[in-house]
Amino acid sequence: MSEEILAEKVLKKYEKILLIEKEETQKLINGIDEIQRKGSKNRSGDLSSYSLHQADMGTDTDESEKRVYHLNKEMEKLKELNFALKRIYEKTYGICEICGCLIQTKRLKVVPYAKFCIKCKSNEEANHRRR
Ligand SMILES: [Zn+2]
Known about the structure:
The protein is mainly α and 131 residues long. The chain is built from 5 helices and no strands.
């Protein structure tokens, strides 16, 4: 059984990675949130300067929608990061939630908050496509 849990040392390393990633994600969310708020303020007020500023980036609505999409994605990521941290503290981090095997290290390096191993993840995606 002991083989199926990542070593304390390894968990600590991923905890650090996750905390840094969480901080960056939080900053990104705050940034987008601020732009979004400024954007809506500008829209009701001085439109000309806003449009000028946004001239080469499509319409205001497009940009706003893109930001909301981006914001949602980052929020989702933040949630995943928090889950991953919780799993670190519970010592279940790095274990695939579907098959229970250890998630490949190379996968955790790319997606430190991964919940599934590569095999289960691709099965999941295949299922989604079929639906
Ligand atoms: Zn799996």
